[in-house]
Specification:
The complex is a heterodimer of chains A (339) and B (82). By secondary structure, chain A is an alpha/beta fold. Helix content of chain A is 45%, strand content 9%. The chains are: A alpha/beta (339), B mainly alpha (82).
């Protein structure tokens, strides 16, 4: 099966969206592409969500046969564009669908942000600022400070896009269910946390390995996990970087249903079918009551991530993680970050 | 293997490793590097962790497996938790 493609011209494939406009006349080419994406026609509400290994719209069969080069559904700019397209469909009423199911056709749910992409194309200050060392110590210091500010702004723009998408899934007026098996780490865990309910098979494991990179989660994971299970569990996962097995996650109430290996998707479909029997307004009202969006905490998490992201140890840790050929790169590192 | 017969935890651990990675796990010495010998990758290591937690009814933080590269060392981690 051919991999799904964005409609031509809708997204600058594989490139981060640039900020719009500028002081001088004609925008560069990438901005024109962005303008097209902004002025795109409203999505056809009857159109089903486009296929992606992470996504399956109930009751469509799960996508098979696609082997993307990204490791375990890594979330980079391409996946983000695909998620934005799906969020558009959800905002337009999801084509009348009553439930949204998340699942992976790969050996795990999702290993989080695409760190290889992040390392390949790290956010960098503009070239003149990078060469500012030649200008003398004072100017160099000012240039480095400005450079960090601009990098944080780029990261912030990416996080704003991710949060817009995750918040849409979180607050969608339909039942959302994550059918999880294997690894749900970092941004993948955070995606599962947007779902109303997590149905996990016994192989599922959840973790926030971000502190290993000198960071905190940035896709809304801390407030969302706190909403579900409370601060002690959040601290346990954050500060140790350890992973939580499905059985323990079920005991804690994070996982709604624990099922045998390979049974998460069938169980999630049965749950979706049951939930779809209820009147739509009642479902929407129940969600509003039982699943408030922790807006202030989400903003605070974004700010904390952006404050850390320009620290020197982050890029070093990222490089170590990506280049680690060891058997256990998903486990906490043996060495500590000395900074 | 007389050592395995004398150590029920190691015995059970070896059976679990064999069920997941094949009979080669049975022929490993307790001090052989499990991950290198069986070519276990990071995701399989996490699967093994889940197996251990389910089979022994314990919770094992990932970091306690750092450096526990042999069946003997893994058995020691499990015993410390049971």
């Amino acid at each position: 099966m051919a991999p799904p493609r964005a409609p031509p011209g809708r997204y600058p494939a594989g490139r981060p969206r640039r900020h719009l406009g500028g002081r001088s006349g004609r925008p560069p080419r990438s901005d024109r592409l962005t303008r097209q994406s902004i002025s795109r026609p409203p999505p056809d509400p009857r159109a089903p969500p486009r296929r992606h290994p992470l996504l399956a719209a109930h009751p469509r069969p799960r996508p098979r046969g696609r082997a993307p080069p990204r490791p375990l559904n890594g979330i980079g700019t391409t996946t983000l564009s695909e998620l934005e397209a799906l969020a558009d469909v959800v905002r337009a009423g999801a084509g009348g669908a009553r439930a949204l199911l998340w699942q992976s056709a790969r050996p795990g749910f999702c290993a989080g942000a695409d760190l290889r992409e992040a390392l390949r194309r790290p956010p960098r200050p503009p070239r003149p600022l990078r060469a500012a060392d030649r200008l003398g110590p004072l100017a160099a210091r000012a240039a480095r400070r400005l450079g960090r500010h601009l990098v944080r702004r780029q990261v912030r723009a990416f996080l704003d896009r991710i949060h817009a998408v995750y918040d849409t899934f979180d607050q969608a007026p339909l039942v959302t269910i994550a059918a999880v098996h294997g690894v749900a780490f970092g941004g993948g865990f955070e995606l599962a946390l947007t779902a109303d309910q997590i149905v996990a098979d016994r192989t599922a494991r959840f973790a926030f390995p971000e502190l290993r990179l000198g960071l905190v989660p940035g896709f809304g994971g801390v407030p969302r996990l706190q909403r579900e299970v409370g601060s002690a569990v959040v601290r346990d996962l954050l500060l140790s970087g350890r992973s939580l097995g499905a059985a323990r996650a079920h005991e804690l109430g994070l996982v709604a249903q624990l099922v045998p290996k390979g049974e998460a998707l069938p169980a999630a479909r049965r749950l979706a079918a049951q939930a779809a029997r209820f009147a739509r307004p009642a479902t929407a009202a129940a969600k509003q009551l039982a699943k408030p969006l922790p807006r202030a905490a989400l903003d605070a998490e974004k700010a904390a991530f952006c404050a850390l992201v320009t620290r020197p140890e982050v890029l070093d840790a990222l490089r170590r993680f990506v280049e680690d050929e060891g058997v256990r790169p998903y486990l906490p590192a043996e060495g500590a970050l000395h900074a | 293997m007389p050592d395995a017969a004398a150590d029920p935890t190691l015995d059970r651990l070896t059976a679990l490793a064999a069920a997941r990675f094949g009979d080669r796990a049975r022929t490993l010495a307790p001090d052989a590097d499990l991950f290198e010998a069986l070519g276990i990758d990071s995701l399989q290591a996490l699967d093994l962790l889940t197996d251990l937690e389910d089979a022994f009814g314990v919770e094992i933080p990932d970091y306690e497996l750092q450096g526990a590269n042999t069946l003997g060392a893994l058995a020691a981690v499990i015993k410390a938790r049971t």
